């Protein structure tokens, strides 16, 4: 699953040699430490030093005021402000002490910072005209986190919304560092609003007019495919076919979207969820991307938010890619669904290294089926195509497609 940036730690100290004298560096580090520990007496002692700077910044641009706001220590915050701390310093992510206090819900600190002139953070997608608020907008006051718990290692939280449980993903401000990213995210939300498929997790809405910004989706309590496979072990053939087709249908729907295909780019078992009936749904489009008319996407930086195990080689090589970028992880997932154990680390390591070096031969994948090896081929032009075509080559079409035969123009051609 694409993953959300974790909450920032209070401080990350710079190392000696970054244009600061050792004495001032030591004093600054001490100041940050005392703010983190809530040691007001120790902080006073540090600031009595001639070398101490109340606005000292660590390697991430964070100050003692940031740290105190994160910890919710009102006395430390007041003391720093009275000693001349800048009220709204921005760290490398653009976050201020007030934004941190809002994130951690430290209401007394929020009130205090506002008394000293701090301005509430404005969401990057905020609009002045109420008529311009998107249809998918959800009032954050409607989200009840009182009995909230984290799922998928803190990426999502469970909340109550209008009487039902939903999954809520909080988005960090670092995702919206420029106007292009904001516009791209706005377009993606508008697209997600239109997606309706039984094998794709349902998008319910988003919070974009206030911070923190959030994405709200349906909540599937039965967990993900990874946990299911770990629990069940090797699956019977019929169940393996059923699960494989669920994934294929969901991904085929995304890839066939018009006018632009939707690439997942983070397809892996933890991003495939189970509903109450046991069917699978593709989830978490945190690093998804629209495939433009040119049919090939090229980026300045390869995707760094996905699990390396399931990343297609062209992303490692920072090459152009298309819908086949999702076929590579799909083949790995099929292998796991069919035989349960992961591919050996040595084989996967060989695939990854050879993919980067573009040196893998056909014999290197001899441990896999012909279809899986074609999907794992480091050259995407040799990789098997769309998801349902992949299912056909895996002998799933006649085995378990059922109603799918009526919904498509005959069998796909190999």
Automatic annotation (TrEMBL):
Signal sequence residues: none
Domain Protein kinase: 145-396
Designated name of the protein: Protein kinase domain-containing protein
PANTHER family recorded: PROTEIN KINASE DOMAIN-CONTAINING PROTEIN, SERINE/THREONINE-PROTEIN KINASE TNNI3K-RELATED
Family: Belongs to the protein kinase superfamily. TKL Ser/Thr protein kinase family.
Keyword Transferase: yes
Keyword Chaperone among record annotations: no
GO molecular function, one term: protein serine/threonine kinase activity
Family matches, as PROSITE patterns: ANK_REP_REGION, ANK_REPEAT, PROTEIN_KINASE_DOM
Each ANK repeat, start to end: 60-92
């Amino acid at each position: 699953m694409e993953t959300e940036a974790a909450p920032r730690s209070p401080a990350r100290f710079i190392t000696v040699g970054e244009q600061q004298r050792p004495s001032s560096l030591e004093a600054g580090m001490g100041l940050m430490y005392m703010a983190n520990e809530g040691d007001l007496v120790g902080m006073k002692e540090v600031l009595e030093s001639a070398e101490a700077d109340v606005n000292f910044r660590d390697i991430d641009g964070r100050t003692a005021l940031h740290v105190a706001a994160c910890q919710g220590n009102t006395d430390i915050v007041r003391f720093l402000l009275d000693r001349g701390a800048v009220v709204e310093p921005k760290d490398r992510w653009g976050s201020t002490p007030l934004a941190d206090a809002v994130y951690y819900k430290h209401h007394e600190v929020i009130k205090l910072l506002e008394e000293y002139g701090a301005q509430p953070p404005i969401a990057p997608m905020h609009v002045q005209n109420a008529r311009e608020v998107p249809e998918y907008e959800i009032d954050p006051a409607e989200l009840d986190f009182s009995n909230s718990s984290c799922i998928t290692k803190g990426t999502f939280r469970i909340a109550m919304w209008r009487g039902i449980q939903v999954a809520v993903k909080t988005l960090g401000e670092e995702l919206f560092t420029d106007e292009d990213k904001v516009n791209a995210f706005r377009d993606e939300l508008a697209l997600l609003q239109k997606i309706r498929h039984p094998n794709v997790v349902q998008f319910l809405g988003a919070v974009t007019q206030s911070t923190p910004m959030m994405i709200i989706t349906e909540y599937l309590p039965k967990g993900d495919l990874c946990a299911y496979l770990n629990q069940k072990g090797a699956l019977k053939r019929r169940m393996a076919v059923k699960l494989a087709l669920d994934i294929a249908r969901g991904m085929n729907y995304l890839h066939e979207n018009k006018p632009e295909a939707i690439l997942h780019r983070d397809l892996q078992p933890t991003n495939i969820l189970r509903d109450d009936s046991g069917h699978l749904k593709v989830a978490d489009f945190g690093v998804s991307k629209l495939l433009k008319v040119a049919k090939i996407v090229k980026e300045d930086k390869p995707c760094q938010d996905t699990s390396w195990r399931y990343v297609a080689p062209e992303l490692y090589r920072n090459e152009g890619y298309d819908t086949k970028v999702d076929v590579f992880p799909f083949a790995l997932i099929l292998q796991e669904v069919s035989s349960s154990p992961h591919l050996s680390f040595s084989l996967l390591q060989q695939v990854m290294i050879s993919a980067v070096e573009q040196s893998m031969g056909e014999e290197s994948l001899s441990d896999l089926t012909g279809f899986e090896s074609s999907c794992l081929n480091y050259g995407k032009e040799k990789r098997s195509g769309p998801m349902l075509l992949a299912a056909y080559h895996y002998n799933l079409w006649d085995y378990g497609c059922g109603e799918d035969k009526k919904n498509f123009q005959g069998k796909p051609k190999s």
